[in-house]
Specification:
- The complex is a heterodimer of chains A (about 300) and B (about 375).
- With about 300 residues, chain A is mainly alpha-helical.
- Chain A has helices at about 1-10, 15-50, 55-60, 75-80, 90-120, 130-140, 145-155, 165-185, 190-200, 205-210, 215-235, 235-240, 250-255, 265-300.
- Mean pLDDT of chain A is about 85; it is low at about 300.
- Chain B folds into two domains: about 1-230, P-loop containing nucleotide triphosphate hydrolases (Rossmann fold, 3-Layer(aba) Sandwich), CATH 3.40.50.300; about 240-380, OB fold (Dihydrolipoamide Acetyltransferase, E2P), CATH 2.40.50.
- The chains are: A mainly alpha (about 300), B alpha+beta (about 375).
- The interface between A and B is medium-sized, with 19 and 22 residues.
């Protein structure tokens, strides 16, 4: 009987009700998504608007209102004129410092991670699991714990306060993560590939370079994004191990915003914050696309 | 000429002895198939020949040269892997030419050799594709091309057909055999499939537990297996073994198994046999016929006749398999495809004993034929 009732209900109203239900739930999903996007976008919008206003408008106006008169003055000031401690060259020299730190730190840590992952999966040696365990352990060491021993190390190495010193610290911290990424990625690569290469006459380096690296794009992208954002956004190591003119942009931004003398220039602060955050956004947008592409090509291969 | 010699090779993984004293030789142009159940050590042996694994002791000689401690690339071998192991990022052309590239062969020569191999394997139109764009059979060909291009002393195949579907497997089997005949190449081929072993090999090594159970031509292995393991491993359905004891039966001996008394055929040497000895009589399924179909066949005049109720029939087309019970064990008979038999009915069967074998129950070793005893009494010990 219940089956018959269901049957009439289904045939009596041809699908209209079901359709509405679908629409309502779809609408709810989109509404929630839009709301959440706004929650994240409003602060950014406020930053952009504020950075394009002059100080008078900021003082008199609404935080969320678009600028009445567009001005790029704060951006120019933040980039090249603002005074940070005793220097009045804006963020630009520190931005360059950050680039000088992040580029070698990312290249070296990703390269070493790839090499470690390759050795730990394809050229296993006695105790390989212990080495991997130790590296894995490194992922869980809080930054603060190593500050003092690391400072002593850098001093002994003659790298105290220098950019290479900061690069070194980031590389040491980074290889734990990049090794983990690459090891897990290479663990899914069939061992027969390496055997075949070995029969074909490729040695240790040739196998890595010709066979494994060209299929590592997805994990290289993941590691680069991870390392780039981590190193670029780092404040603690920068403030601890880089002295004066060698400081990265994060530390400079802090100094710019926290200057206690004179008028607080919110527009310059906002422009500086956006400038500092820009490279990581850029890497996400550009590399993220490659990342997706890598995933897709793997999926289609089947 | 001896192309490959394996001498006293042992391999231990810790306390586990994977290979125990492997000794064998094959000549130029031989197609050796290493066959056995999984875990018998056949792939390990192949890897040791290739140099991908190190033997615990013993020597490998290729074309007379001791290569035991050389890298794979220095051994003048090429290998085809089960998963094909094509390099995913490279085109088919570069895959095939990669070994030449590593050896520093110049580009023009490389192109020429790749073209020749591609022509031989009929894969010219695939050269610019990547492995992910190929079907299973095409990948198989490319993997073979990668081996062929090196013109090695020995080709090593590690279960190359096990990832293909049944139809393609039969096609590729023929193709590999053709290639072998055309090139006269020396091949060592690992498989767990006894049909592949029988159809392709010129020599078969049947392995179990890290030991070569028997080494010989396919026909010898099939007709004169050295023990019950080889007898039941080679051939499908497997050889029937009837357990019984030897009793005297008029002039000669017979195997008494339950209520059946089966005369010991004349080709088995009587010298070593004694009354009361427990033995197993080996009978291939195809040696058993319906009595009604072979009543007038004079060759089977002194065959063994018995009655049984068939439990299950399996018509395969060319043959009808019948399953019944014999001395508490299952017994398979491969009857003609036209045999009209039904499960649950009793039939009279006649078994051709001219190829029957006798095994010692204790050791499982085959008891020698009379022609073997006269020639060399030690043959069975090997």
């Amino acid at each position: 009987m219940s089956v018959a009732a269901l049957e009439t209900a289904r045939t009596g109203e041809p699908g209209a009700e079901v359709d509405w239900g679908k629409r309502v739930s779809r609408f709810a999903v989109y509404a929630a998504l839009v709301f959440m996007a706004l929650v994240f976008l409003v602060p950014l919008m406020s930053m952009v608007f504020t950075s394009l206003k002059d100080m008078d408008e900021i003082r008199g106006g609404n935080l969320l209102a678009p600028p009445q008169v567009l001005t790029f003055e704060p951006w120019i000031k933040a980039w090249s004129e603002a005074c940070i401690s005793v220097r009045c060259d804006g963020l630009s020299p520190y931005f360059i410092n950050s680039l000088l730190i992040v580029v070698p730190a990312v290249i070296i840590s990703v390269g070493l991670g790839a090499l470690n992952g390759y050795v730990l999966t394809m050229w296993r040696f006695p105790g390989a699991d212990w080495v991997f365990g130790a590296l894995l352990f490194g992922c869980f060491i809080p930054f603060q714990i190593v500050l003092i021993p690391m400072a002593r190390m850098l001093g002994l190495m003659g790298l105290a306060g220098s950019i290479p010193g900061v690069v070194f610290v980031h590389v040491v911290y980074g290889i734990c993560f990049t090794t983990l990424f690459f090891r897990n990625y290479y663990a899914s690569v069939p061992k027969e590939l390496v055997k075949a290469a070995s029969v074909d006459g490729a040695g240790f380096w040739a196998t890595w370079w010709h066979i494994l690296l060209p299929i590592s794009w997805p994990i290289i992208t993941v590691s680069v994004i991870w390392q780039f954002t981590g190193v670029w956004n780092d404040f603690l190591f920068g403030v601890s191990f880089a002295a004066g003119d060698n400081q990265p942009v994060t530390v400079a931004l802090n100094n710019l915003v926290n200057t206690s003398t004179g008028v607080k220039e919110y527009n310059v602060d906002m422009a500086g914050a956006i400038i500092s955050a820009f490279p990581t956004l850029f890497v996400y947008v550009v590399a993220g696309r490659f990342f997706l592409r890598g995933l897709m090509s793997g999926a289609v291969k089947g | 000429m001896t192309t490959l010699a394996v001498q006293d090779v042992k391999k231990d993984f810790g306390a586990t002895k994977v290979l125990k004293d492997i000794d064998m030789e094959i000549g130029t142009g031989d197609f050796l198939v290493l066959v056995g159940p999984s875990g018998c050590g056949k792939s390990t042996l192949l890897n040791i020949i290739a140099g991908l694994e190190k033997q615990t002791s013993g020597e490998i000689l290729i074309a007379g040269k001791d290569v035991s401690h050389l890298e794979p690339k220095a051994r003048d071998i090429a290998m085809v892997f089960q998963s094909y192991a094509l390099y995913p990022s490279m085109t088919v052309e570069r895959n095939i030419g990669f070994s030449l590239e590593m050896a520093g062969v110049d580009k023009a020569t490389r192109k020429e050799r790749i073209r020749e191999v591609a022509e031989l394997l009929k894969i010219e139109e695939l050269l610019n594709r990547r492995p992910s764009q190929l079907s299973g059979g095409q990948r198989q060909r490319v993997a073979m091309g990668r081996a062929l291009v090196r013109e090695p002393q020995i080709f090593l195949f590690d279960e190359p057909l096990s990832n293909l579907d049944a139809k393609l497997r039969v096609d590729m089997r023929v193709e590999i055999k053709k290639l072998h005949q055309r090139l006269g190449a020396t091949i060592v081929y690992v498989t767990h499939d006894q049909i592949e072993a029988m159809t392709m090999a010129t020599k078969i090594a049947v392995m179990k537990g890290g030991i070569i159970q028997q080494f010989g031509a396919p026909k010898d292995i099939y007709d004169r297996p050295s023990n019950t393991f080889v007898a039941t491993f080679m051939g499908s359905p497997a050889m029937n073994l009837i357990a019984g004891t030897l009793v005297s039966n008029g002039a000669g001996l017979a195997v008494k198994a339950g209520e059946e008394t089966i005369p010991v055929p004349g080709h088995i040497a009587a010298d070593g046999l004694s009354e009361g000895q427990s033995v197993q009589l080996g009978l291939r399924p195809e040696a058993v016929h319906l009595e009604s179909e072979v009543a007038h066949d004079t060759r089977l005049a002194d065959g063994w006749v018995f009655d049984r109720v068939i439990e299950v029939t399996e018509p395969t087309g060319p043959a009808t398999l019948a399953l019944f019970e014999m001395g508490g064990e299952e017994f398979h008979a491969s009857l003609s495809g036209d045999a009209e038999v039904e499960a649950g009915q009793s039939y009279r069967f006649k078994a051709d004993l001219s190829k029957a074998l006798l095994f010692d129950s204790q050791s499982g070793d085959r008891l020698p034929h009379s022609d073997e005893v006269r020639q060399s009494p030690k043959t069975q010990a090997a």
